[in-house]
Amino acid sequence: MRGDVRGRRVAVVPDSVVNPPHGVPDLLPRLAADGWGIIALASAELGSSERAAWLDLVVEQVVTFLDDNYDVALVDGEDRAIQAFATKMQEIGRAVPRVLELEAG
Amino acid sequence: MTTVCYLAHCLLNANAKVDEGARCAGVYSPVVELLRRHGCTIRQMPCPELAFGGTRRFWAVREQYDTPAFRAHCKRLAEPVAAQIRADLKRQARVVIVGIDGSPSMGVELTASSAEWGGRPHNPQDEDYPVVPGAGLFTETLLGLLADEEANVRIVGLGQDLFDYDEQAELEKLRHTLSSEGGEVAR
User: Fold this and answer.
1) I want to staple B4 with a disulfide (CB 3.0 to 4.6 A). Which of A26, A36, B38, B41 is the partner?
2) How many helices (H) and strands (E) does chain A have?
3) In this structure, are residues B111 and B62 in contact, taking their beta carbons and an 8 Å threshold?
4) Between chains, do B24 and A5 touch, taking CB under 8 Å as contact?
């Protein structure tokens, strides 16, 4: 089609990165500047069954990137949604060991 | 009133684009900056083509994806999105869906469609990609799931998958959609 400038770097992020609460540093510009694309986990506002379905979809997409040797990392390893994602990956025998340490850009 | 924008996956992750189709490294910052200025809540929709066709897929048209399996896949992806949209509408938020015009799955006003496109890849010219009026398969599925709520949702397509993509014109289209009720907010 037209050339391609993808960074081949994908960060799995909690909702708080996409929608930073008031007073919390905005990390999205930092990720963008560093060439990361993101996959956002569902907001905690979503019901548990829908959140589980959303998580399954994220896992499928992340596995697709891992299988094609994209660089995949997590942001905010302490976040509960990120931990749920990591657990789900372990259940299928996969892992995303890299956790990014970010400062707002 | 809160505005919640549901973005096509690739606007936050260009790695999900078809092979040779990524216009930026990852996050498409102009859209994020615009939504931040408007104080919007951002939600990312799943990419229906990525987990189905992988990262090295060719640029297909609607007809190539229009199978019972792909439609079922779109429905599975769209259901949690529709549930979240319903929850947002219930709490009186304004919902804007931002798709990708020219995409066979995420198109809003324009999609890729052709009865002839397919078979052995031969890298045709960009301008040959057959874009026609109409929505993509995922967009169609999501709006179908929203049913009577569809009228309460605004939807706009950014023409990132069009040969003659005009970034400023497309951002203006989004800005117009966001500004049509309520102005920009300082952040």
Assistant:
1) B41
2) 4, 4
3) yes
4) yes
